Amino acid sequence: MPHFDLPPHFRFGVATSAFQIEGAWNEDGKSPSIWDTFGHTPGKVHEDIPGDVACDSYHRYPDDIALMRDMGVDSYRMSLSWSRILPDGTGRINQKGIDYYDRVIDGLLEAGIDPNITLYHWDLPQVLEDRGGWPNRDVAEWFAEYAAVSFNAFGDRVRRWATLNEPIALWIGYAAGWFAPGRQEPKAGRQAMHNAMLAHGRAVQEFRAAGSPGEIGIVLDIWKREPATPSAADLALAQAGEDDGFRFFLDALRGGGYGDRIRERLEADGTMPVILPGDQRLIEQPIDYLGLNVYSRVVVNSETNDPSKWAQSDPHPGGNFLDNGLEYYPRAVYEALDMVRDDYGWVGPVIITENGMNDGPSAAENPLDDVERIQYVEGFLEWIAAAIHEGHDVRGYYLWSLLDNFEWSAGFTAKYGLAALDPVTLDRVPKASASWYRDVIAAHRLTRSGHIRPQKSSGNTVTPSAQMGDHEITVAHQGYSPEGGKPLTWKCVSPMVENP
Ligand code: NOJ
Question: Could you tell me which residues come within 8 angstroms of residue 68 by beta carbon, excluding any fewer than 6 positions away?
Protein backbone atom coordinates (compact mmCIF):
# COMPACT_ATOMS: atom_id res chain seq x y z
CA MET A 1 0.00 0.00 0.00
CA PRO A 2 1.41 3.42 -0.87
CA HIS A 3 2.05 5.25 2.35
CA PHE A 4 3.11 8.80 3.05
CA ASP A 5 4.42 10.16 6.28
CA LEU A 6 1.45 12.41 6.93
CA PRO A 7 -0.13 13.14 10.31
CA PRO A 8 -3.36 11.37 11.34
CA HIS A 9 -5.45 14.54 11.08
CA PHE A 10 -4.42 15.07 7.43
CA ARG A 11 -7.40 14.72 5.06
CA PHE A 12 -7.61 13.65 1.44
CA GLY A 13 -10.07 15.01 -1.06
CA VAL A 14 -10.88 15.58 -4.69
CA ALA A 15 -11.98 18.83 -6.31
CA THR A 16 -14.23 20.06 -9.11
CA SER A 17 -16.11 23.27 -9.85
CA ALA A 18 -19.74 23.90 -10.78
CA PHE A 19 -19.31 25.15 -14.32
CA GLN A 20 -16.77 22.48 -15.20
CA ILE A 21 -19.02 19.54 -14.31
CA GLU A 22 -22.67 20.40 -13.81
CA GLY A 23 -24.01 21.05 -17.31
CA ALA A 24 -27.79 21.75 -17.18
CA TRP A 25 -26.84 25.27 -18.13
CA ASN A 26 -30.42 26.50 -18.55
CA GLU A 27 -32.39 24.02 -16.48
CA ASP A 28 -34.65 24.51 -13.48
CA GLY A 29 -34.45 28.27 -13.45
CA LYS A 30 -30.70 28.73 -13.83
CA SER A 31 -29.74 31.85 -15.79
CA PRO A 32 -26.59 31.99 -17.96
CA SER A 33 -23.23 32.72 -16.43
CA ILE A 34 -20.44 34.57 -18.23
CA TRP A 35 -18.97 31.18 -19.17
CA ASP A 36 -22.24 30.16 -20.85
CA THR A 37 -22.15 33.34 -22.91
CA PHE A 38 -18.44 32.97 -23.66
CA GLY A 39 -18.80 29.30 -24.66
CA HIS A 40 -21.65 30.19 -26.99
CA THR A 41 -19.55 32.88 -28.69
CA PRO A 42 -17.78 31.48 -31.77
CA GLY A 43 -14.02 31.13 -31.47
CA LYS A 44 -13.80 31.42 -27.70
CA VAL A 45 -13.55 27.80 -26.55
CA HIS A 46 -11.98 24.77 -28.15
CA GLU A 47 -13.99 23.62 -31.17
CA ASP A 48 -16.79 25.90 -30.03
CA ILE A 49 -18.08 23.19 -27.69
CA PRO A 50 -19.56 25.01 -24.68
CA GLY A 51 -20.11 23.63 -21.19
CA ASP A 52 -23.83 23.08 -21.69
CA VAL A 53 -23.64 19.42 -20.68
CA ALA A 54 -20.11 19.12 -19.28
CA CYS A 55 -20.12 15.98 -17.08
CA ASP A 56 -23.87 16.27 -16.54
CA SER A 57 -23.28 16.19 -12.80
CA TYR A 58 -26.51 18.11 -12.31
CA HIS A 59 -28.22 14.80 -13.07
CA ARG A 60 -25.44 12.34 -12.34
CA TYR A 61 -24.16 13.62 -9.02
CA PRO A 62 -25.05 10.27 -7.40
CA ASP A 63 -22.47 8.65 -9.72
CA ASP A 64 -19.90 11.23 -8.62
CA ILE A 65 -20.63 10.54 -4.97
CA ALA A 66 -20.46 6.77 -5.53
CA LEU A 67 -17.07 7.19 -7.19
CA MET A 68 -15.79 9.25 -4.27
CA ARG A 69 -17.18 6.78 -1.76
CA ASP A 70 -15.38 3.96 -3.56
CA MET A 71 -12.14 5.90 -3.31
CA GLY A 72 -12.80 6.64 0.35
CA VAL A 73 -12.15 10.38 0.09
CA ASP A 74 -12.64 12.42 3.24
CA SER A 75 -13.79 15.59 1.56
CA TYR A 76 -15.13 16.97 -1.72
CA ARG A 77 -14.23 20.47 -2.83
CA MET A 78 -16.98 21.78 -5.11
CA SER A 79 -18.35 25.18 -6.00
CA LEU A 80 -21.81 26.66 -6.24
CA SER A 81 -23.25 28.19 -9.38
CA TRP A 82 -24.27 31.73 -8.42
CA SER A 83 -26.71 31.95 -11.34
CA ARG A 84 -28.41 28.69 -10.31
CA ILE A 85 -29.08 30.08 -6.84
CA LEU A 86 -29.78 33.73 -7.71
CA PRO A 87 -30.77 33.86 -11.40
CA ASP A 88 -31.00 37.66 -11.27
CA GLY A 89 -27.63 37.87 -9.55
CA THR A 90 -29.31 39.34 -6.45
CA GLY A 91 -32.80 39.25 -5.00
CA ARG A 92 -35.00 36.33 -6.02
CA ILE A 93 -33.80 32.91 -4.80
CA ASN A 94 -34.26 29.94 -7.14
CA GLN A 95 -35.46 27.19 -4.82
CA LYS A 96 -34.68 24.51 -7.39
CA GLY A 97 -31.05 25.59 -7.34
CA ILE A 98 -30.98 25.36 -3.55
CA ASP A 99 -32.67 21.95 -3.74
CA TYR A 100 -30.00 20.66 -6.10
CA TYR A 101 -27.16 21.59 -3.76
CA ASP A 102 -29.15 20.22 -0.81
CA ARG A 103 -29.28 16.87 -2.59
CA VAL A 104 -25.55 16.92 -3.31
CA ILE A 105 -24.58 17.97 0.21
CA ASP A 106 -26.90 15.45 1.86
CA GLY A 107 -25.65 12.71 -0.48
CA LEU A 108 -22.07 13.51 0.41
CA LEU A 109 -22.74 13.49 4.12
CA GLU A 110 -24.56 10.18 3.85
CA ALA A 111 -21.48 8.78 2.13
CA GLY A 112 -19.26 10.10 4.93
CA ILE A 113 -17.70 12.84 2.78
CA ASP A 114 -17.33 16.41 4.03
CA PRO A 115 -18.41 19.06 1.55
CA ASN A 116 -15.96 21.93 1.10
CA ILE A 117 -17.67 24.72 -0.79
CA THR A 118 -16.13 27.48 -2.89
CA LEU A 119 -18.59 30.29 -3.52
CA TYR A 120 -17.03 31.58 -6.71
CA HIS A 121 -15.16 29.54 -9.29
CA TRP A 122 -15.29 31.95 -12.26
CA ASP A 123 -18.96 31.79 -13.32
CA LEU A 124 -20.42 35.23 -12.65
CA PRO A 125 -24.13 35.52 -13.57
CA GLN A 126 -24.33 37.17 -16.99
CA VAL A 127 -26.94 39.60 -15.64
CA LEU A 128 -24.28 40.98 -13.31
CA GLU A 129 -21.75 41.22 -16.11
CA ASP A 130 -24.39 43.28 -17.91
CA ARG A 131 -24.26 45.63 -14.93
CA GLY A 132 -20.48 46.04 -15.26
CA GLY A 133 -19.28 42.75 -13.79
CA TRP A 134 -16.28 42.48 -11.51
CA PRO A 135 -14.88 45.91 -12.45
CA ASN A 136 -18.02 47.47 -10.92
CA ARG A 137 -17.38 48.06 -7.23
CA ASP A 138 -20.99 47.09 -6.47
CA VAL A 139 -19.91 43.48 -7.02
CA ALA A 140 -18.77 43.37 -3.39
CA GLU A 141 -22.35 43.85 -2.20
CA TRP A 142 -23.78 41.50 -4.82
CA PHE A 143 -21.32 38.85 -3.69
CA ALA A 144 -22.04 39.48 -0.01
CA GLU A 145 -25.73 38.86 -0.66
CA TYR A 146 -25.04 35.64 -2.57
CA ALA A 147 -22.66 34.49 0.18
CA ALA A 148 -25.25 35.19 2.90
CA VAL A 149 -27.91 33.24 1.00
CA SER A 150 -25.49 30.30 0.67
CA PHE A 151 -24.44 30.32 4.33
CA ASN A 152 -28.08 30.46 5.33
CA ALA A 153 -29.06 27.57 3.05
CA PHE A 154 -26.12 25.22 3.60
CA GLY A 155 -24.22 26.48 6.64
CA ASP A 156 -25.92 23.96 8.90
CA ARG A 157 -24.10 21.12 7.09
CA VAL A 158 -21.04 22.62 5.41
CA ARG A 159 -18.05 23.16 7.64
CA ARG A 160 -15.46 24.48 5.20
CA TRP A 161 -15.95 27.39 2.83
CA ALA A 162 -13.82 29.39 0.44
CA THR A 163 -14.81 32.78 -0.92
CA LEU A 164 -13.00 32.86 -4.27
CA ASN A 165 -11.02 30.45 -6.39
CA GLU A 166 -7.89 31.86 -8.07
CA PRO A 167 -8.90 35.51 -8.42
CA ILE A 168 -6.09 35.99 -10.97
CA ALA A 169 -8.58 34.48 -13.43
CA LEU A 170 -10.25 37.91 -13.40
CA TRP A 171 -7.17 39.38 -15.03
CA ILE A 172 -7.32 36.67 -17.68
CA GLY A 173 -11.01 37.39 -18.27
CA TYR A 174 -11.02 41.19 -18.15
CA ALA A 175 -7.52 42.20 -19.29
CA ALA A 176 -6.15 39.36 -21.43
CA GLY A 177 -9.52 38.23 -22.75
CA TRP A 178 -8.74 34.51 -22.89
CA PHE A 179 -11.40 33.67 -20.31
CA ALA A 180 -14.95 34.87 -19.86
CA PRO A 181 -16.11 37.54 -20.25
CA GLY A 182 -13.37 38.03 -22.87
CA ARG A 183 -12.72 41.72 -22.26
CA GLN A 184 -9.31 43.21 -23.04
CA GLU A 185 -9.26 46.16 -20.69
CA PRO A 186 -6.22 46.14 -18.41
CA LYS A 187 -7.46 48.90 -16.12
CA ALA A 188 -10.79 47.15 -15.67
CA GLY A 189 -8.86 43.92 -15.02
CA ARG A 190 -6.96 45.49 -12.10
CA GLN A 191 -10.13 47.01 -10.71
CA ALA A 192 -11.77 43.58 -10.96
CA MET A 193 -8.90 42.10 -8.94
CA HIS A 194 -9.25 44.77 -6.25
CA ASN A 195 -13.04 44.46 -6.19
CA ALA A 196 -12.66 40.71 -5.79
CA MET A 197 -10.68 41.35 -2.64
CA LEU A 198 -13.49 43.59 -1.36
CA ALA A 199 -16.02 40.88 -2.23
CA HIS A 200 -13.93 38.35 -0.33
CA GLY A 201 -13.87 40.63 2.71
CA ARG A 202 -17.62 41.20 2.60
CA ALA A 203 -18.28 37.45 2.36
CA VAL A 204 -16.09 36.79 5.38
CA GLN A 205 -18.06 39.46 7.26
CA GLU A 206 -21.31 37.74 6.31
CA PHE A 207 -19.93 34.39 7.44
CA ARG A 208 -19.06 35.78 10.87
CA ALA A 209 -22.38 37.64 11.10
CA ALA A 210 -24.29 34.44 10.32
CA GLY A 211 -22.48 32.76 13.21
CA SER A 212 -21.77 29.91 10.83
CA PRO A 213 -19.83 27.12 12.45
CA GLY A 214 -16.76 25.96 10.59
CA GLU A 215 -14.13 27.84 8.70
CA ILE A 216 -13.72 30.18 5.77
CA GLY A 217 -10.70 30.96 3.63
CA ILE A 218 -9.69 31.90 0.11
CA VAL A 219 -7.98 29.91 -2.64
CA LEU A 220 -4.97 31.36 -4.46
CA ASP A 221 -2.85 29.70 -7.10
CA ILE A 222 0.85 29.88 -6.51
CA TRP A 223 3.16 29.51 -9.49
CA LYS A 224 6.46 30.71 -8.13
CA ARG A 225 8.81 32.24 -10.67
CA GLU A 226 12.42 31.17 -10.90
CA PRO A 227 14.74 33.54 -12.80
CA ALA A 228 16.64 31.49 -15.38
CA THR A 229 19.78 33.56 -14.71
CA PRO A 230 20.76 36.02 -11.96
CA SER A 231 20.42 38.94 -14.42
CA ALA A 232 18.45 42.01 -13.34
CA ALA A 233 16.10 41.50 -16.29
CA ASP A 234 15.26 37.92 -15.30
CA LEU A 235 14.76 38.95 -11.70
CA ALA A 236 12.42 41.77 -12.72
CA LEU A 237 10.44 39.40 -14.88
CA ALA A 238 10.15 36.91 -12.04
CA GLN A 239 9.01 39.62 -9.64
CA ALA A 240 6.40 40.98 -12.02
CA GLY A 241 5.05 37.48 -12.65
CA GLU A 242 4.70 36.76 -8.95
CA ASP A 243 3.23 40.21 -8.25
CA ASP A 244 0.52 39.72 -10.84
CA GLY A 245 -0.14 36.07 -10.06
CA PHE A 246 -0.41 36.00 -6.29
CA ARG A 247 1.45 38.72 -4.40
CA PHE A 248 -1.19 41.29 -5.35
CA PHE A 249 -3.71 39.25 -3.35
CA LEU A 250 -1.42 38.15 -0.54
CA ASP A 251 -0.17 41.69 0.05
CA ALA A 252 -3.71 42.86 0.65
CA LEU A 253 -4.97 39.80 2.53
CA ARG A 254 -2.04 39.76 4.93
CA GLY A 255 -2.25 43.45 5.76
CA GLY A 256 -0.61 46.65 4.70
CA GLY A 257 -2.08 46.87 1.24
CA TYR A 258 -0.49 46.40 -2.14
CA GLY A 259 3.30 46.57 -1.91
CA ASP A 260 5.38 49.46 -3.24
CA ARG A 261 6.68 47.44 -6.17
CA ILE A 262 3.17 46.62 -7.34
CA ARG A 263 1.92 50.16 -6.84
CA GLU A 264 4.81 51.67 -8.76
CA ARG A 265 4.29 49.39 -11.74
CA LEU A 266 0.52 49.89 -11.79
CA GLU A 267 0.91 53.66 -11.51
CA ALA A 268 3.42 53.57 -14.35
CA ASP A 269 1.23 51.53 -16.67
CA GLY A 270 -1.96 53.39 -15.73
CA THR A 271 -3.79 50.41 -14.26
CA MET A 272 -3.85 51.36 -10.59
CA PRO A 273 -7.34 50.50 -9.31
CA VAL A 274 -9.46 52.95 -7.37
CA ILE A 275 -8.96 52.14 -3.69
CA LEU A 276 -11.16 53.87 -1.12
CA PRO A 277 -10.48 54.50 2.57
CA GLY A 278 -11.50 51.42 4.54
CA ASP A 279 -10.91 48.97 1.68
CA GLN A 280 -7.75 47.55 3.16
CA ARG A 281 -9.30 46.94 6.57
CA LEU A 282 -12.15 45.09 4.93
CA ILE A 283 -9.80 42.90 2.91
CA GLU A 284 -7.37 41.98 5.67
CA GLN A 285 -9.79 40.67 8.27
CA PRO A 286 -8.85 37.27 9.63
CA ILE A 287 -9.52 34.09 7.70
CA ASP A 288 -9.41 30.58 9.11
CA TYR A 289 -7.18 28.91 6.55
CA LEU A 290 -5.33 29.66 3.35
CA GLY A 291 -6.13 27.50 0.33
CA LEU A 292 -3.27 27.05 -2.12
CA ASN A 293 -3.53 25.57 -5.59
CA VAL A 294 -0.06 24.42 -6.57
CA TYR A 295 0.80 22.69 -9.83
CA SER A 296 4.36 23.68 -10.67
CA ARG A 297 6.67 26.68 -10.97
CA VAL A 298 7.64 28.88 -13.93
CA VAL A 299 11.23 29.47 -14.95
CA VAL A 300 11.44 32.90 -16.59
CA ASN A 301 14.03 34.05 -19.08
CA SER A 302 13.97 37.63 -20.32
CA GLU A 303 15.95 36.70 -23.43
CA THR A 304 13.36 34.27 -24.72
CA ASN A 305 10.26 35.70 -23.07
CA ASP A 306 7.59 36.75 -25.55
CA PRO A 307 4.16 36.86 -23.91
CA SER A 308 2.39 37.60 -27.17
CA LYS A 309 3.86 34.49 -28.78
CA TRP A 310 2.15 32.20 -26.32
CA ALA A 311 -1.14 34.06 -26.53
CA GLN A 312 -1.18 33.74 -30.30
CA SER A 313 -0.14 30.12 -30.41
CA ASP A 314 -2.53 29.05 -27.68
CA PRO A 315 -5.72 31.05 -27.94
CA HIS A 316 -7.67 28.48 -25.92
CA PRO A 317 -5.85 27.99 -22.65
CA GLY A 318 -7.11 25.83 -19.83
CA GLY A 319 -7.36 26.82 -16.18
CA ASN A 320 -3.64 26.40 -15.73
CA PHE A 321 -3.01 29.01 -18.36
CA LEU A 322 0.63 29.00 -17.39
CA ASP A 323 1.24 25.35 -18.03
CA ASN A 324 2.76 25.54 -21.45
CA GLY A 325 6.08 23.81 -21.08
CA LEU A 326 4.92 22.54 -17.70
CA GLU A 327 7.74 21.19 -15.69
CA TYR A 328 7.35 18.40 -13.20
CA TYR A 329 8.47 20.18 -10.08
CA PRO A 330 6.84 18.75 -6.96
CA ARG A 331 9.05 20.86 -4.71
CA ALA A 332 6.82 23.74 -5.83
CA VAL A 333 4.41 22.95 -3.02
CA TYR A 334 7.12 23.10 -0.40
CA GLU A 335 8.37 26.41 -1.79
CA ALA A 336 4.85 27.82 -1.84
CA LEU A 337 4.40 26.93 1.82
CA ASP A 338 7.71 28.52 2.75
CA MET A 339 6.81 31.62 0.76
CA VAL A 340 3.51 32.27 2.52
CA ARG A 341 5.19 31.78 5.88
CA ASP A 342 8.42 33.67 5.23
CA ASP A 343 7.12 36.53 3.09
CA TYR A 344 3.67 36.94 4.60
CA GLY A 345 3.97 35.54 8.12
CA TRP A 346 1.20 33.01 7.51
CA VAL A 347 1.61 30.26 10.12
CA GLY A 348 -2.06 29.28 10.24
CA PRO A 349 -3.65 26.26 8.61
CA VAL A 350 -3.05 25.67 4.93
CA ILE A 351 -5.02 23.38 2.68
CA ILE A 352 -3.67 22.34 -0.69
CA THR A 353 -6.95 22.95 -2.46
CA GLU A 354 -5.77 21.81 -5.92
CA ASN A 355 -2.99 19.79 -7.42
CA GLY A 356 -3.02 17.40 -10.33
CA MET A 357 -2.05 17.00 -13.94
CA ASN A 358 -3.41 16.74 -17.40
CA ASP A 359 -3.18 13.19 -18.85
CA GLY A 360 0.37 12.22 -19.81
CA PRO A 361 1.70 10.11 -22.70
CA SER A 362 0.61 6.75 -21.36
CA ALA A 363 -3.00 7.89 -21.65
CA ALA A 364 -2.49 8.20 -25.40
CA GLU A 365 -1.99 4.42 -25.46
CA ASN A 366 -4.62 3.64 -22.86
CA PRO A 367 -6.69 6.48 -21.41
CA LEU A 368 -7.08 4.61 -18.13
CA ASP A 369 -3.41 3.92 -17.62
CA ASP A 370 -2.35 7.27 -16.16
CA VAL A 371 0.94 6.35 -14.57
CA GLU A 372 2.32 9.88 -14.83
CA ARG A 373 -0.51 11.20 -12.69
CA ILE A 374 0.33 8.72 -9.96
CA GLN A 375 3.96 9.72 -10.07
CA TYR A 376 3.10 13.41 -10.10
CA VAL A 377 0.81 13.22 -7.07
CA GLU A 378 3.25 11.01 -5.23
CA GLY A 379 5.95 13.64 -5.58
CA PHE A 380 3.72 16.40 -4.27
CA LEU A 381 2.53 14.33 -1.30
CA GLU A 382 6.13 13.62 -0.38
CA TRP A 383 7.01 17.30 -0.40
CA ILE A 384 3.88 18.11 1.62
CA ALA A 385 4.93 15.52 4.18
CA ALA A 386 8.40 17.08 4.30
CA ALA A 387 6.91 20.54 4.88
CA ILE A 388 4.67 19.26 7.66
CA HIS A 389 7.65 17.70 9.37
CA GLU A 390 9.32 21.07 9.29
CA GLY A 391 6.39 22.69 11.04
CA HIS A 392 3.93 23.73 8.33
CA ASP A 393 0.33 23.26 9.37
CA VAL A 394 -1.02 21.60 6.22
CA ARG A 395 -4.42 20.10 6.96
CA GLY A 396 -5.33 18.42 3.71
CA TYR A 397 -4.92 17.85 0.01
CA TYR A 398 -7.43 17.94 -2.85
CA LEU A 399 -6.57 16.24 -6.09
CA TRP A 400 -7.74 18.09 -9.18
CA SER A 401 -9.90 16.52 -10.41
CA LEU A 402 -12.49 13.87 -9.70
CA LEU A 403 -13.43 13.68 -13.39
CA ASP A 404 -12.20 14.72 -16.79
CA ASN A 405 -14.20 17.92 -17.18
CA PHE A 406 -14.66 21.18 -19.05
CA GLU A 407 -11.22 22.73 -18.91
CA TRP A 408 -12.27 26.31 -19.65
CA SER A 409 -11.17 27.65 -23.03
CA ALA A 410 -9.38 24.36 -23.74
CA GLY A 411 -12.78 22.64 -23.63
CA PHE A 412 -12.53 18.90 -23.14
CA THR A 413 -9.00 18.56 -24.51
CA ALA A 414 -7.19 18.73 -21.17
CA LYS A 415 -8.12 15.76 -19.01
CA TYR A 416 -7.30 16.13 -15.34
CA GLY A 417 -9.59 13.41 -13.97
CA LEU A 418 -9.07 10.42 -11.74
CA ALA A 419 -11.95 9.09 -13.80
CA ALA A 420 -12.52 9.42 -17.53
CA LEU A 421 -15.91 10.08 -19.05
CA ASP A 422 -17.29 7.68 -21.62
CA PRO A 423 -17.82 10.08 -24.54
CA VAL A 424 -21.17 8.55 -25.45
CA THR A 425 -22.79 7.50 -22.20
CA LEU A 426 -20.91 9.95 -19.92
CA ASP A 427 -20.39 7.04 -17.54
CA ARG A 428 -17.56 7.61 -15.09
CA VAL A 429 -14.68 5.20 -15.71
CA PRO A 430 -11.96 5.17 -13.04
CA LYS A 431 -8.37 5.43 -14.21
CA ALA A 432 -5.42 3.63 -12.59
CA SER A 433 -4.84 6.71 -10.44
CA ALA A 434 -8.27 6.30 -8.82
CA SER A 435 -7.32 2.88 -7.41
CA TRP A 436 -3.94 4.16 -6.40
CA TYR A 437 -5.50 7.15 -4.59
CA ARG A 438 -7.97 4.82 -2.88
CA ASP A 439 -5.01 2.79 -1.58
CA VAL A 440 -3.21 5.92 -0.39
CA ILE A 441 -6.27 6.99 1.55
CA ALA A 442 -6.82 3.50 2.97
CA ALA A 443 -3.22 3.33 4.14
CA HIS A 444 -3.57 6.70 5.79
CA ARG A 445 -6.76 5.57 7.52
CA LEU A 446 -4.79 2.74 9.07
CA THR A 447 -2.31 5.21 10.52
CA ARG A 448 -5.24 7.18 11.89
CA SER A 449 -6.61 4.16 13.65
CA GLY A 450 -3.17 3.34 14.95
CA HIS A 451 -2.44 0.15 12.99
CA ILE A 452 0.54 1.64 11.18
CA ARG A 453 2.68 4.21 12.88
CA PRO A 454 3.88 7.04 10.67
CA GLN A 455 7.62 6.85 10.07
CA LYS A 456 9.62 9.35 11.99
CA SER A 457 11.14 12.07 9.87
CA SER A 458 14.89 11.64 9.56
CA GLY A 459 15.73 15.26 10.29
CA ASN A 460 16.00 17.37 7.22
CA THR A 461 16.71 14.63 4.75
CA VAL A 462 13.87 12.79 3.16
CA THR A 463 14.45 9.48 1.45
CA PRO A 464 13.65 9.64 -2.25
CA SER A 465 10.81 7.50 -3.35
CA ALA A 466 11.72 4.49 -5.45
CA GLN A 467 10.02 5.91 -8.52
CA MET A 468 11.42 9.39 -8.27
CA GLY A 469 14.79 9.18 -9.91
CA ASP A 470 16.33 11.77 -12.17
CA HIS A 471 14.69 11.17 -15.49
CA GLU A 472 12.79 12.76 -18.29
CA ILE A 473 9.30 11.98 -19.41
CA THR A 474 7.89 13.17 -22.65
CA VAL A 475 4.34 14.39 -22.44
CA ALA A 476 2.15 14.32 -25.51
CA HIS A 477 0.89 17.71 -26.58
CA GLN A 478 -2.45 18.53 -25.01
CA GLY A 479 -3.08 21.87 -26.59
CA TYR A 480 -0.64 23.91 -24.56
CA SER A 481 2.65 23.80 -26.42
CA PRO A 482 3.82 27.14 -27.78
CA GLU A 483 5.34 25.15 -30.64
CA GLY A 484 1.82 24.11 -31.52
CA GLY A 485 1.78 20.38 -31.15
CA LYS A 486 5.28 19.14 -30.58
CA PRO A 487 5.71 16.90 -27.56
CA LEU A 488 6.84 18.74 -24.49
CA THR A 489 9.73 17.55 -22.42
CA TRP A 490 8.55 17.10 -18.91
CA LYS A 491 11.63 16.99 -16.86
CA CYS A 492 11.87 15.58 -13.39
CA VAL A 493 14.02 18.27 -11.86
CA SER A 494 13.50 17.77 -8.18
CA PRO A 495 13.75 14.23 -6.93
CA MET A 496 13.23 14.09 -3.18
CA VAL A 497 16.88 13.88 -2.36
CA GLU A 498 17.85 17.01 -0.57
CA ASN A 499 15.45 18.93 1.48
CA PRO A 500 17.19 22.08 2.69
C1 NOJ B 1 -7.09 25.76 -11.84
C2 NOJ B 1 -8.58 25.95 -11.71
O3 NOJ B 1 -8.99 26.29 -10.44
C4 NOJ B 1 -9.39 24.81 -12.28
O5 NOJ B 1 -10.63 25.30 -12.61
C6 NOJ B 1 -8.66 24.18 -13.44
O7 NOJ B 1 -9.45 23.24 -14.10
C8 NOJ B 1 -7.40 23.54 -12.93
N9 NOJ B 1 -6.57 24.52 -12.26
C10 NOJ B 1 -6.59 22.83 -14.02
O11 NOJ B 1 -6.20 23.74 -14.98
Answer: 14, 76, 108, 111, 113, 402
Query: For residue 4, what are the CA distances in angstroms to 72, 98, 358, 418, 447?
Result: 16, 38, 23, 19, 10
CA dihedral (10, 156, 15, 366) positive or negative: positive
Q: In this model, does residue 491 exceed pLDDT 50? A: no
Cβ contact 346:340 at 8 Å: yes
Q: What are the respective helix, strand and coil percentages of the chain, to the nearest 5?
A: 40, 15, 45
Residue nearest to atom 4 of ligand 1 (CA): 319
Ligand 1: which residue has its CA nearest to atom 2?
319
Q: Which of 247, 228, 431 is nearest to 343 (CA)?
A: 247
Identify the bridge partners of residue 429 per DSSP, sorted by sequence position.
420
| C-beta of 354 in contact with ligand 1 (< 6 A) | yes
pLDDT of 495:
34
Q: How confident is the model at residue 321 (pLDDT cuts 50, 70, 90)?
A: confident
Q: Please give the distance of CA 176 from its chain centroid, rounded to a whole number.
A: 19
Q: Is 400 in the pocket of ligand 1 (CB under 6 A)?
A: yes
Report the separation in Å between the CA atom of 319 and the middle of ligand 1, taken as the mean of its atom positions.
4
Q: What is the largest CA-CA distance in the chain?
A: 60
Cα-to-centroid distance, 416 and ligand 1 (Å): 9
Distance between CA atoms of residues 295 and 147, nearest Å: 28
Reported as a single tens digit per residue, the pLDDT across 419-473 is: 999 999 999 999 999 999 999 999 999 988 765 544 433 332 222 232 322 333 3
Q: What is the mean pLDDT of residues 351-356?
A: 98
Dist. CA 341–CA 394, nearest whole Å:
12
Instruction: Kindly state the average pLDDT of the residues 488-499.
Output: 33
- DSSP, collapsed to helix, strand or coil, labels residue 405 as coil
Q: How far apart are the C-alpha atoms of 376 and 356, rounded to whole Å?
A: 7
pLDDT for 497 beyond 90: no
Q: Answer yes or no: is pLDDT of 499 > 80.
A: no
pTM for the model stands at: 0.91
CA 234/CA 301 separation, integer angstroms: 6
- What's the confidence (pLDDT) of residue 179? 96
36 lines ligand 1 (CB under 6 A): no
The SS3 call for residue 330 is coil
H or E element at residue 163: strand 160-165
